[in-house]
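re: that chain from earlier
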Amino acid sequence: MKNLYLILILLVTLASCKSPEARMPESVKSGSFLKESAERNKKLNALEQKMIESIMESNPDKDYIASENGFWYFYTNKVESDTLQPVFGDVIDFDFNVSNLEGSEIYASENKTYVMDKEELFTGLREGLKLMKPSESVTFIFPSQIAYGYYGDENKIGTNVPLICEVTLNNINKNND
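^ sequence. v structure.
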């Protein structure tokens, strides 16, 4: 009986030493979500591009400039003599109002003080301000991906809304660091 008990323990011990087997996945994802998302974004960008081009064509008196950062702008008041433009750390004071491409005002004229590249501001406006000089007024047209994008501003600007921003740069206080 004692031998039978030892054999039984030996068999249980050997059976329990088996290494675990990998479980096969029940379904295989092929990355289709990412492909679909990319296609959706391409279609959205093409639609916004057509809308923006339509606005520019309907205003032939405006001299639109395409920026390297993917937005368009024209000067309402251009300053030729000054060469001062904001850079990292400068404190700027500017007025702006925001509307959608249909011209409906989203935010009425607001005054804002902003430390260049040290505070949060949507990409398009941050890059647009870097092009401006004191006393200049510029109208920017931002596609949604460089405005507030998918999330909006969680207040008045919804998902994927291209924006028109009229901006006047009032003052630049240079960073002395």
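Residues 43-82+89-95+139-177 form one domain.
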